[in-house]
Amino acid sequence: MNILYFFGKFHPLLVHLPIGILLFSVFLWFLALLKKTFSLVPVIRLGLGASAVSSLFSVATGFLLRANESYPDEIINPHMFMGIALTFLLFFIFKISKRLYKYPAGRKILSFLFILSAIFLIITGHFGGMLTHGASFLVPPPIQEWFGTKETESFVLNENTTVYEAVQYVFNSKCLSCHGPVRQRGGLRMDDYAQLIKGGKHGEVVLAGNPQESEILQRILLPLNDEYHMPPRERPQLTDEEIKLMLWWIEDGLKPDENIYKSTLPAELITLIETMARPEEEIINENYLPDYQVPFADASIIKEFEELNVVVVPLSVNQPWLSVSLVVTRQEDIHSVLEKLVSLKDQLIELKIQDRILKTEDLMYIGKLESLRRLYLTNCTLNAETSLQHISHLSALRYLNLSHNQLEKDNILPFSGHSALKNLYLYNNNINAEGAKALEKLLPETKILATGFDVPTFTSDTTELTP
Amino acid sequence: MGKKEDIQQEAKLRSLEWVTRRHFLKDCSLGIGAMALSGFLGSCGRKSAEVSGIVPSANRPLAARPPHFPGKAKSVIYLHMAGAPSQLELFDFKPELQKLDGLACPPSLLEGKRFAFIRGVPKMLGPQSNFHQRGQSGAWISDHLPHLASIADEVAFLKAVHTDQFNHAPAQLLMQTGSPRLGRPSIGAWVTYGLGSENSNLPGFVVLTSGGNNPDAGKSVWGSGFLPSVYQGVQCRAEGDPVLFIKDPENINRNIRRASIEAINEVNRMTYEEFRDPETITRISQYEMAFRMQATVPDVMNINDEPDYIHQMYGTTPGRASFANNALLARKLVEKGVRFVQLFDWGWDTHGTGVSGSIDIGLVNKCRQVDKATKALIMDLKQRGLLEETLVVWGGEFGRTPMQENREGKTNPYKGRDHHTEAFTIWMAGGGVKPGISYGETDEIGYAAIKDRVDVFDIQATILDRLGFDHEKLTYDFQGRPFRLTDVHGKVIKDILS
After folding, report:
1. Record: fold of B75-242+304-496
2. CB distance from A280 to chain B under 8 Å?
């Protein structure tokens, strides 16, 4: 690394000097205008001069940095031109402001120039930010989705998935921050097949059928603390399987469209691809969380419930979905709590009540909690008189636990044809195996468990072996 | 650079309340500068505990809290067979080892290795039990565990677990706290720190022991380490009062007890206002919880009211300390909202030095003590609709050698195996784990794990994952750096997740 490059690296640090000083000077200028205190002008000019000189240094270090790194022209060029223009502008304002502020017209010109310099500064800074943080750094999440600027696309596995898609997915997650659309260190861009084959400024990085000579693998396989090791030591490293996958693909001839299932890819690599393709959220999600959005519940409402010994917890951090447990709520509060819970009906997807007395009017309130997916009403004195039709219309229900009540088969009939319900637990009610079978016919989508399991006792369970 | 600031930040937290107005004025210029600096350098540093979302409230350290992502399991029942059961007699069937039975162990298996008791050249010892493939999944389980064998399709076997500790206490500590040395919080403490407790009338983390002894590593295996001690496991006794002195003394009624606890807590609250030591908060909430527990614990811990068919299912005898009683209690506790129930059953250390510690007799008797109750626990959870949200883990702290132990170079009076770190079996069932699979393989004599190896940290990471935690983000700042259960290790075993 040459010494000039070293100085160049101070560019991102130095640029903050003119930014800060200039913005403060602009602020002081308008303060001076407002309060008519032009005694501030020498201070403002001192600031202008300081920001002009410091931006000169910024420009100089910027040149050094640019000469030693590769940035996309469409961002680095406007950044550079605006930076240079800003520096000239600052010197110019510094020069003319000495006398101009004394005249009303001059003050107007100066105000205009100050605003112009601030605009130049913002534009320069914006492009600079794109270089260091990526284009979507300051774009709020919803806009990112509309414009599709999300950085890593997830990888979908189906019968048409190709080996290259899997390799590309590895590149996307481990390489693109330096060799992608934003930056191309060493002139190498890896988000596109053609660009990858073309290689970087020192030539090809992948050679079909020749992994030993392919620079990409050579660099990856260098010891971690080697200067030329890739990815750089402080970045996430490739796993052994990922390296094997890349090696296999290069050896196989860099084919862009070979199907993983029709290739001779070893089984362990197919397993790797299958695990890569399955993003974490998907595993958790399966029917568990709704796929639509709702606003977060009011914190003050949740607080009120806490005072009633009701446990209200989000399903996870940063999620609006709530789980509510009434296991420590006093019996006399149950009714009013259920009535109140209706205010959380959009967020409430899990409700647990056990060892409490529930009456028909309580069930009516539960029936209003239409987002419910998991519902536990265990040991709640539900009996033949209870009409479950108040809750049977809850169409989002996935899990319903009615164990330890005195329900009969006919109580369950209102649920007939419920298509979302996956598991219905009726253990320890007045429903026998036959009744459960009959219910299963009416609820073809649902696994019903009404009778318990038996664990036989063997003689060996109660005897000891002796020598 | 980051480390120094972290230490400073932690020191600040600790001494927050010592700061008077004058201190504040003196320190604030520096403080604000440090704040600006930390913001500026933010991108270089790690994410703080706030980012991980786990911020227990100081006043209610056990309040229920959300995990990082929705968990598949809501509770864990960890059945730790203290002493380490022999995988070679129970799950890891090695016909090749039978052929080598009685032959001297080849030097290649001994070179550079250390064993707890084996010295010189031991003899190989073939499997001392009959194996069959069970269920649809065809998992190998020996005749020692007939009940478990009948539910093989409910269970995921991890057959290539390895550890790096070959003595009981450090290995148990490693398994339960992520470090072979004392001082780290146990899994249950981490989970309680992360999730709080759903049922404020019960502890969030309960420990039950059987087999006549506490585990070798002592109570540290359910300790809270550097976490506030409110998160440590509460050990309940299986005989007599579940918690010692839980009954009010004679002539003291509930109201007097309430009044005295309120007075004590008032004093503690004043102390907290002055010193802001989080341990004071722990003390307050423990008094309050103890008061509530006086009413609820005897009730939950009482198995007398369970119907007869449940007693028959588990094989329980009320009033006698046993694994079966503890298994039934574990189900009751989970049903009431306890997040982590830790069972330790002592007596699995089968060296062959005595009858009870022998592979051919003692091990069989240990199996008989736990087998039926273990199946009963799983099936009972299943029939109550709780198995899908309760993760059951079964295993010891290490495995046992394919060689017969020759303590001090002599042959032991009974058949036995020494401690072995390189391969053993652990199984999981329920909460978000694929049922009916065997994951991982050992070599043909069961000496070393060769395929799909998992270490202790992987198991810990997987348990936390099932509860909804990213094990890398569940951290606590201590001594200037964030600590986590898995330290710098651990990979979620994705292949066994459902």
Report:
1. Alkaline Phosphatase, subunit A (3.40.720)
2. yes
